[in-house]
Amino acid sequence: MATGYKDSALKVFSLNSNPELAKEIAENIGTELGKCTVTSFSDGEIQINIDESIRGCDVYVVQSTCAPVNQHIMELLIMIDALKRASARSINIVMPYYGYARQDRKARAREPITAKLIANLLETAGASRVIMLDLHAPQIQGFFDMPIDHLVGVPILSDYFKSKNFDDVVIVSPDHGGVTRARKMADRLKAPIAIIDKRRPKPNVAEVMNIVGNVEGKTAIMIDDIIDTAGTITLAANALVENGAKNVYACCTHPVLSGPALERIENSKIKELVVTNTIPLGEEKTIDNITQLSVAPLISEAIIRVHERQSVSILFD
After folding, report:
1. Which has the minimum average pLDDT: 87-91, 174-178, 278-282?
2. Binding residue positions for Mg(2+)
3. Parallel, antiparallel or unpaired: strands 205-212 and 46-50
4. What's the pLDDT band for 1 if we cut at 50, 70, 90?
5. Which residues are catalytic, by number?
6. Kind of pairing, strands 247-255 and 46-50?
7. Binding site for ATP, residues?
8. Hey, how many other C-beta atoms are within 10 angstroms of the C-beta on 315?
9. String of b and e for 201-239 (b: at least 16 CB within 10 Å)?
10. By the 8 A CB rule, do 119 and 147 touch?
11. What is the gyration radius of the CA atoms in the chain, in angstroms?
């Protein structure tokens, strides 16, 4: 953890999506949040004022594009424009959660690729760099023509479960697309993996088919990047118990938790859901079996390394 960082050319600003995380990042760096105000006119238009000089500074703006997604994207675009016009030397976007990442390809005819559109908007507005955490599809990095620092949450989640000292653990991927992520956690916990083989008939509806791997008598830890409506993860938990798993835990980097997610989690076989604070959990989403870990130390270290032109990849080890 970095403390007492004294480079006046490094400025950290927060918009409205995740001010608590931004404050924690600034504290870890050893600086104060930059002064700015974000307000709305009576018709809903966003107004941003930067209340200190940032001329010649390297500015880092913390903004997850979580709900309300479009509001937070517009705040960010307007902030980038304001910083550019105020002569910031570089405008670095710290986006712990990248909204629209699941629209990364044309799955059907006449569909947009919205993840690419957001990348275009950020570049056109004037961003210099983006620091992100666990993109839903890592290839989204290729949608940008500027530097991207892609951080990973597996070490944070793995360390938490390692401290539990479970016996006979199996790491479970809730779908085939998450096998690489599950294997990274399995390597850290020195555990085998299993895969949930499922078919999704329509968006936000998952049907579990079978389990590839041995889970009988084991403590199963499911890992995913995003939990949205929690349909996949809770159906998978039920299937694991039906196939003999002793206990079921789940974890993810981005707790979107929309719609029926909380009710499903509370009524599921999941003993504990471990998430990070890339997306803030309001009081209405704070329930007994959800644990939230902080990504602030990781992000603050990445910011310092970017600012000092040091390696960021070392943080993945």
Report:
1. 174-178
2. 136, 175
3. unpaired
4. very low
5. 198
6. unpaired
7. 43-45, 102-103
8. 16
9. eeeeebebeebebebeebbbbbbbbbbbbbbbbbbbbeb
10. no
11. 20
Looking at this protein, which amino acid is placed at residue 50?
I
Cis peptide bond N-terminal to 203, omega within 30:
no
Half-sphere exposure of 199 toward its Cβ, with a 13 Å CA cutoff? 3
The Cα 70–Cα 91 span in angstroms is 20
Q: Which residues pair with 210 in a beta bridge?
A: 197
* Token pair in block for residue 75: 């705040």
- Residues belonging to the binding site are 43-45, 102-103, 136, 175, 200, 224, 228-232
Q: pTM for the whole thing?
A: 0.93
Largest interatomic CA distance in the chain: 61
Q: How confident is the model at residue 208 (pLDDT cuts 50, 70, 90)?
A: low
Q: Which pair of tokens denotes residue 112?
A: 């947009």
- Return the closest-CA partner of residue 45 out of 78, 19, 69: 78
